[in-house]
Amino acid sequence: MSEAGSLRLGVLKPEQLASFDFNPLDATKIWPGVPECKIGTLTLNKNPGNVFQETEQSAFAPANLVPGIEPSEYRRLQGRMFSYADTQLYRVGTNVLQLPINHPKVAVVNNNQDGAANSGLTTSNVNYQPSRVGG
After folding, report:
1. Whole-angstrom Cα distance, residue 38 to residue 9?
2. Are residues 134 and 68 part of one domain?
3. Domain containing 20: what range?
């Protein structure tokens, strides 16, 4: 069941957007003359062991960006940056980032605790961020 696919995209700098005679952020347009570059490969090589834990609880949000990368001015993306994260809080719960499928590789101490989908041990009486009391 191994299937690989590579993702190729054209990349523009913000100042290049004005050089088109159409709105390049329109989802129905193709950028002529912009070379595509490979940005990654996705390989599907197994089925999830637990469909609920590995797919139903997964929370993807375009607002989760690697430091140093900024989102484009594309209106649809700008709306989704807010709405996806907000939807995950409603759908999965406030502790969405504590679930094993969603937690970051490096531990983040944000003082979120209790509530739905809590998988951590509560060791503090502080449940908000920032706090002068909590670490």
Report:
1. 7
2. yes
3. 1-46
Q: How many domains does the chain have?
A: 2
Above pLDDT 70, what percent of the chain? 75
Say whether both 125 and 76 belong to one domain: yes
Q: Note whether 77 and 109 are same-domain residues.
A: yes
Check: CB of residue 2 under 8 Å from CB of residue 43: yes
pTM of the model: 0.54
- Cα–Cα nearest to 60, from 13, 20, 99: 99
SS (H, E, C) 54-80: HHHCCCCCCCCCCCCCCCCCCHHHHHH
pLDDT tens profile 24-56: 888 888 888 888 888 788 888 888 888 888 888
* Same domain? 74 vs 132: yes
What DSSP designation does 85 have?
H
